[in-house]
Input
Amino acid sequence: MGGIKEKNIDDTFKFMKMVADHQGWKLNRDEDFLKMLAEGLTINWNRYGYYSCPCRDASGDKDKDKDIVCPCDYCVPDQKEYGHCYCGLYLTPEFYESDKETQSIPERRPEEKYMQ
Output
């Protein structure tokens, strides 16, 4: 894979925590769900060489997928409207404190992006 070092799940957890801390977000408190997302991100890193959103199909072309590299371009708009991102990985502090469950939210990614 062109010199890109493989990641393990611990690397991915560190990445997720670093992003959340840097952005002032919270990680989903459901440990099993969080582990599933971390596994998906790890698989995508080892497959493509970048952390593409585990809840979306990536093409393997980083330029085409740049909008879905974690945290994706849709994360903040989703958080503003729903309190969490599409995956339910990153939560706003307000949503986290509310103890609400994440919900299915509409896909913001334009259809032509994922129908390539």
